[in-house]
Amino acid sequence: MLNKISAYATVKIWKIKEAIKDFWEEEQGASQVLEIVIVLVIVVGLALVFREQIGTLVGKLWSSINGATGDFDPKNIQDEIDIT
What is the dihedral of CA 28, 34, 40, 45, to 10 degrees? Predict the structure, then answer.
């Protein structure tokens, strides 16, 4: 009779340990999502604070790219490539 009680208690303890382990792993996943959300909120907040500076930087980069490729004509590529 004591063996059955002991076995029953052991199974219950094992199930409780598994339930705690599963809960812990599930909560770790939820905390990772929370961390990602917090980082995104910070990035968006910084983008709003520095939007004028970011806009100026992007504008300068875009002008630089357009200036460097201003003389690019895709029609001339066919003439330069010798397909034989």
Answer: -140
